[in-house]
Amino acid sequence: MWTREALHELIQQRLQGYQFIVASNREPYIHRFVGSRIECMEPASGMVAALDPIMRACGGVWVAHGSGDGDRETVDQYGHVRVPPCNPQYMLRRLWLSKEEEQGYYYGLSNGCLWPLCHVSFTRPVFEEQHWETYRQVNKKFAAAILEEAGDNPTFVFLQDYHLALVPRMLKDSNANLIVAQFWHIPWPNPEIFRAFPWLKELLEGLLGNDLLGFHLRHDCQNFIETVDRSIEARTDHVGFEATRRGKTTLVRPFPISIDFNQHGATAQGEGVERETRVWRRRLDLKDDHLLGIGIDRIDYTKGIPERLRAIDRLLEQYPEYRQRLIFVQIGVPSRLGVAAYRGLDQELDALVAHINRKWGTRAWRPVVFVKHHCSEIQMMALHRLARFCFVSSLHDGMNLVAKEFVASRDDEDGVLILSQFTGAAQELGDALLVNPFAIGPGAHAMRQALTMPREERRRRMQKMRSTVAGSNVYRWAGKFLSALLKFDFAESVVSAAASAW
Ligand code: F6P
Q1: Same topology for domains 13-257+476-493 and 270-470, yes or no?
Q2: What is the mean pLDDT of residues 195-209?
Q3: Residue minimizing CA distance to atom 14 of ligand 1
């Protein structure tokens, strides 16, 4: 079993003398003004949830966009601040973007164009020359900050996601000795979809600067290799998963991302979560005969939130016994409101929730409680533990760590996970109730099944999913990634030995 210590050991042994630099658009800790006080918060990001434990285990520098209004007040002259604030274990290097840069690179190209393209979610991508130009400029800015951090030291740079596709080539062109790898946290669609992207050649050229490029699933890797094959001059190996362009080879591999199962479980069993459970009970006025369902997402059109709400409406229509009994809490963290499609969804959800509550609600009971703000990890764990079921209905999702977090919180081996078959997580969590999120009737039926499932079956399914997530934890993800990068195939036994010697 991979552990924090085993990963640390691997890095000590194999990357000794190397600096470790992670770079992503989203920063792991955001400082914000609350009145005249500055507070530090953690963003709603699966990428951050996965990478932060790795950085805590390995140390190093994380380069990211400083997006909080209190961020500049909390760094030194180099944009550095040590994090986590309560127990600093690594360095965060913030870089600053102007409003125009943020508009073109983040809202425009990354989330108005690459995001809908990669998720094939029936939302039209917007192709704007100016956004691409800004994306290129901001990628240069990231590359410059990384090169500055690396200096002349041997360095391993681990880039995250679709915001930074041009950075690998820029880094390699400046310093061929850097080890550069990237993990693409969202799906990679089939080549037909990417044909529409006007700057595809340059995007691929950028990504092929990587020594290793990781995706969640094998299917994403295949799509990527095929996209390269059809779009640029490169030698591709569809079996060995490699692409060679101008004499430089990029390995392409699947690594399904995960969470720190043990740490998550330990926190979920703690006193803080117990306290928050009482707070939720009071807030929701939860009675013993109430049944709680939950959904936790950023407000994003890929998450299938309207479909989920319509399925709740259908459930209440078809099964009157759940009226006055079922309470569905939807945590929706506002997201990317600079993109029109996100603003539209926000309004659609408000209207839908109001409609369902008007249709079915009574003086004493509201079927849907829409919590439209960021909740702490502890508050979410408390909800996980109170829920009869958690409904993840993404229309398309690279992985979806909410599903794994729900499972990790349930050491009581209870609760049912209803999971979209179009998430990466569905490939590992076959003991969830798998649904097609577009189909409203089957969604309602799955909730009914979750609510009537015998305790023994709930236990059996949850036990299996917990053992899967425990084994495939985030340290395994990082360890496998590094092992592939270093072209060593570390047997699990070697890792266990390293772990016990630690
Ligand atoms: O996992 C994909 C991702 O885009 C991450 O890169 C990101 O941090 C997360 O989703 C949340 O999105 P955002 O950073 O745009 O709020």
Answers
A1: yes
A2: 97
A3: 26
